[in-house]
Design a protein that fits this description.
The structure is a homodimer of 418-residue chains. In chain A, helix 1 crosses helix 11, helix 5 runs antiparallel to helix 12 and helix 11 crosses helix 15. A five-stranded mixed β-sheet of chain A has the order 1-12-11-7-10, with helices on both faces. In chain A, strands 3-2-4-5-6 form a five-stranded parallel β-sheet, with helices on both faces. Chain A has 418 residues and is α/β, with parallel strands linked by helices. Chain A is 45% helix and 16% strand. Chain A folds into two domains: 226 residues, Rossmann fold (3-Layer(aba) Sandwich); 168 residues, 3-Layer(aba) Sandwich (Rossmann fold). Chain A starts with a strand and ends with a helix. At the A-B interface, helix 6, helix 7, helix 8, helix 12 and strand 8 of A face helix 6, helix 7, helix 8, helix 12 and strand 8 of B.
Chain lengths: 418, 418
Amino acid sequence: MIEYERDFDHKIAESDTIKMMNSFGSLLYESEHGISGYYNLPEDSKNILREIEVFTELNREVYENFTTIALIGIGGSSLGTKALYQALKNRYENIKEIIFFENPDPVTISNNIKKIDPDKTIFIVISKSGGTIETTSIFKLLIKEFDLNLKESKRVITITDEGSPLCDFSDYYGIKTFVIPKNVGGRFSVLSSVGVVPLALAGFDVESILNGAEEFLKSFFASKEEHLLIKANFLTKFAKDFPITVLFTYADSLEDFTKWFVQLWGESLGKIDKNGRSVGLTPTGHIGSVDQHSFLQLIMEGPRDKFVTFIKVEDFENDLKIPDISLKNIEKVDYINNHTFNELLNAECDATKESLVSKDIPVDMLILDKLDEKNLGELIIYYELLTSACGIMLNIDTYNQPGVEYGKKILQKKFKKD
Amino acid sequence: MIEYERDFDHKIAESDTIKMMNSFGSLLYESEHGISGYYNLPEDSKNILREIEVFTELNREVYENFTTIALIGIGGSSLGTKALYQALKNRYENIKEIIFFENPDPVTISNNIKKIDPDKTIFIVISKSGGTIETTSIFKLLIKEFDLNLKESKRVITITDEGSPLCDFSDYYGIKTFVIPKNVGGRFSVLSSVGVVPLALAGFDVESILNGAEEFLKSFFASKEEHLLIKANFLTKFAKDFPITVLFTYADSLEDFTKWFVQLWGESLGKIDKNGRSVGLTPTGHIGSVDQHSFLQLIMEGPRDKFVTFIKVEDFENDLKIPDISLKNIEKVDYINNHTFNELLNAECDATKESLVSKDIPVDMLILDKLDEKNLGELIIYYELLTSACGIMLNIDTYNQPGVEYGKKILQKKFKKD
């Protein structure tokens, strides 16, 4: 269960109500006409779980006996999976390790390679376009390094668009491919095969993640989550006043979730709008209480240009306590003795929120009762819907990313001229 | 060696020259009159290296035979050490592992405790004020968990201000304390005992880090680093046009360095200025090429409110290559074959920079020939000086953080009323 608590003052004018209703209609239209396919994933992706079962059953000799997944993918092909992996892995005793090959940083790649026993590893190559330079380069290296026999290897799986170069490559070698729906962009793809296949193979309860997302989606389209539209309306109406969207999560294991959010928010909303204007909201992700000792001073006393969302986890399912020890000369902090770290962290979250509210900084808070699969599924679809709603209100195409193509062309030229 | 490359167009008016000269004078004044003590650290901290030698020699039975350092500290007490540890540890074969106890997140603390063998661990407790609630709480837990005998333990070291509660506590038990100079604030303290002690004990060549910092400092005060003042002038003169300062580093191992930068920049410059106005520059840290697939679209097409600094490492001292393999149907990326990953990553950095320059986005680049101790020392003092220069030009007190006190009071109230 997630509770949505609003601490920003937003008087809703009639024009806002109309804008919110229109946006709701547009979201419904997007969903029903496949403008983006992510709306269908919570339901459709359950088929992938069955597809995985059949495939692993047919290839038991490999899939009964592996310890590690090497996931080769970057950006939308890895950030969402990484977020869920980090947030949830503490809940399991016997999860497979996922090693992420993302950045073409040679030091990281070398370190990762050392961790891999090829006879105990599944290699999953993920690229929506099917020709991502970083991913194919690393894949080639792993083929060479581990002498992967592509023609007979059931250890290699690809995840890509139908008809992409990587898809054709897989067909040629008889490599198993899981397809990404054409109308699902990378940053909206975590609940597609992109996230479902590695997480299910690793042993996560993916069905509950999908259920969590599906329930919220249904509730939203049944007009029961008006708070989301109110927030989108506030963020876009006052985009010039509060151009920076801060996500302040009080749980270490949500750090990768903030990175997923940064991609979703930044790449979706940073656009030239239909009137030719540059618009967008700049996301930043922070971890409490660490960043109380870092970013908080700037929010409190710096320019009033930030909207802050707190994520709090009510119950970490961990009862670690501050012992009843009094340290000679440091007795002044004894008031915290016998409380749990869970209590301390959450009290810090509340105190930080209150001090921001006291300065009239617009704030809201998402309160998760636990860090579990269902809540993570809900959190993901909540942010995807919020992004889509803001995109509609900003008059932009939420789902493309034309700004990154130019750099790719420059890169090609650098090497092709050699 | 670090090369400083400017790609923003800055015509320097006469008023700018005067501002830059005045700021230079103020920095000199700050340094000579101890307004902040960080200017003296590169030289003074060499004494700490000798102090460590003497101490470990006297306690050989413990310090000849440990594998792990448990570092208990948060914010300015950990971010800088973490940054250097992550950036440099790949250069060493036999470095001690440092386990960071920062956030009071119970899951992280539990996981970290499992990694510790108390008979092979040194415990370093760091708190400038000497009463940081997170740090003392975790320290108490470790005392209980590992049954630390404070009266006889040479395994415990504290780092704090002279006369602080933690200092008095240490005196009472005869625990070795390394002192932080009073006029060195947490976020400027990495080259004091705060960073020097754990890094030297772990086996890093700290002297080279200090030398790198000292050389740049001398060069700056010999008026040979004018580029720094030009940048500070640009950033502060156009603070309203470019309120967001982006650090885009092309090396995975500099991720924690970007977090250190975020604290330094955000907490130092986010202030109410001498005229009562809220000023500041909002820092964000990113890693290339991963964030080309994330944040880049927003920089390219979103609001023109960002100044972007790239950090590039010319030589990763790693010759890992993309093998000369052609993947059936993905031949279009074969142009990269036989190049190193080092080349690929740097070409991506250059291509991204060029595409930003083509859009007239203000950019500069720091080019490190290698990721070594000397360059990291220089990088640290460069950013500290840049922060101080911007602070002077913004008319603020760079070294305090009044905005975070209110939250601490609310926190106390929450528990004391129980």
